[in-house]
Specification:
Strand order of the largest sheet: 1-2-3-4
Structural class: alpha+beta
Mean pLDDT: 89
Distance between the termini: 27 Å
Largest sheet: 4 strands, mixed
Number of strands: 4
Strand content: 5-15%
Number of helices: 5
Bound molecules: iron/sulfur cluster
Shape: globular
Length: 153
């Protein structure tokens, strides 16, 4: 399989908060350093959190056409809190994308095997997956940092 690259996508540079910029930017605000067509104007000195971040799509999660700027959703994998399989986070970067057919289909597919956190632009966090794990994550999702103000990690 050919390695994926961000190309023209800069979805995470808007969707996620970045606290280690000289002027921190909140979640959902387009970063001033985004270059038209994708890329970063401060690439050589960008914050360490930007250097460290990669979304799931870059690692082969989802189809080629599911690049976050096209899908409207950033897929991330996060370590589990409860000793179970890693958690999938679907982070909306286009309003309503989680409820659209492709987004909803991906959520159902992932939820067959693990916990899925649905982070919508409108606010609120949905949890899908095995029932015994859903209860744990419903209580913990905001404490985990998936709510408003989420930072890149
Ligand atoms: S969302 Fe993924 S593909 Fe898009 S710019 Fe960020 S890391 Fe790259
Ligand atoms: S500094 Fe560069 S990599 Fe970091 S959010 Fe802004 S555009 Fe993206």
């Amino acid at each position: 399989m050919t390695a994926r690259s961000c190309g023209g996508c800069s979805a995470c540079c808007t969707a996620l908060g970045v606290t280690d910029l000289p002027v921190p930017k909140p979640r959902g605000v387009r970063c001033d350093h985004i270059v038209p067509g994708g890329g970063c104007s401060t690439y050589a000195s960008k914050p360490s959190s930007c250097c460290a971040y990669t979304c799931g799509w870059l690692h082969g999660v989802g189809a080629e056409d599911d690049r976050p700027d096209r899908l409207g959703i950033i897929v991330e994998t996060q370590p589990a809190l409860d000793g179970g399989a890693s958690v999938i986070v679907l982070r909306e970067c286009s309003p309503g994308a989680i409820n659209a057919s492709r987004g909803a289909g991906l959520a159902r597919t992932f939820a067959d095997r693990t916990v899925v956190l649905l982070v919508r632009m409108a606010g609120g966090i949905g949890v899908m997956g095995p029932q015994h794990r859903v209860q744990v994550y419903q209580q913990a999702a905001i404490a985990l940092g998936y709510g408003p103000g989420t930072v890149r990690k």
